[in-house]
Design a protein that fits this description.
Blueprint lengths: L4 H10 L11 E4 L1 E5 L8 H19 L2 E4 L3 E4 H14 L1 H6 E2 L5 H12 L5 H9 L13 H20 L19 H10 L5 E4 L6 E2 L5 H5 L6 E5 L6 E6 L1 H4 L3 H7 L5 H21 L20 H10 L21
Parallel strand pairs: 1-3, 2-4, 2-6, 6-9
Antiparallel strand pairs: 5-7, 8-9
Length: about 325
Amino acid sequence: MIRRLVFMYLCIMLTSCTTSNTALKHAEISVAYIVNPRLEQLSQQDIVKVLDKIKLVTQQRLDLKLTFKPLHITSIHDLFQPYQQKIRSDAQMQSFMLKPEQHSKEVLYHGFIAAFDQLSLEEIIAGVKNQTNSHEIDTSKSRQDILQQIAYLHIDKLIKIKSIKVKYDHKDLLQDDLYNEYIAWDYIINQQSKYDLIITNQLIASAEAYYPTVHTSLRGGITSGFAAKSHTSYDGAIVMTTYPFISSTPFFQQARGRNYSRQEMIDTIAYTAVHELGHLFKYRKHYYDHPGCVMRPAPGLHYLEWMKEVKQSKKCLKKHDTYWKDYFSNQGS
């Protein structure tokens, strides 16, 4: 999901939209499958099935026909290596990245205070209540107390995620390699011009002191997918991680409610990707008041329940504003 609101307003001032993507009927996109060999992964055949499902659902829900270029498979090392030195040497990016440790709680809390200065208490509570673990936050408290609870919960969960042992090497799930950092992925997507859609088995779970979000924090910093500016033909790209959908670890099994079958993994990943494509190609924002709409975010990691709700509903006919039109500007046709 989109987390770069802070930068959207700069884009509005610096760019102008030359094409209305809401009328876009066909898009040919390049796809990469980025693999971290340490982690559980889908086969190439499964990824092809994900793409086939994305194609079908995108046509049904967004009136957009997709054509995929040949799938490119590469390692996460090859994707990150050209950018790692820049990310590690950038003082601002480094200051934004918070480590999964107790000291980060107060830093994230103050980040919430700054980021949500204009957000009403009602909106904050609505963000909490949309999550399946909303009971972990006492919303009867003051605004500052609620924000502190959310920040503390974020770090507590992220510490647990970090300490999950990987079967491949028996080491912690999160390593000091930037692979799990949202900021690192966001930076790479902004710089690259090769891929319109990236699917990866790498977990993206982190904490950032800039523009934190309630829904991400209640999950422990887990990002299922997001859309960001990029130097591609459509001026933006999608990243989808398969890890939260396929991990058999107790933490993720509990967060989802159960383990998924192979077909359920394929289908839920595809539907979530279509949600992100709605941001990129139709400029749509999140709609919490559109039950059954693909643009209503999945609550927590309950992807299967969300997908079933969407599948049982016909195409959403409610109004969808072109909210990201100025963010994803200069689009191709």
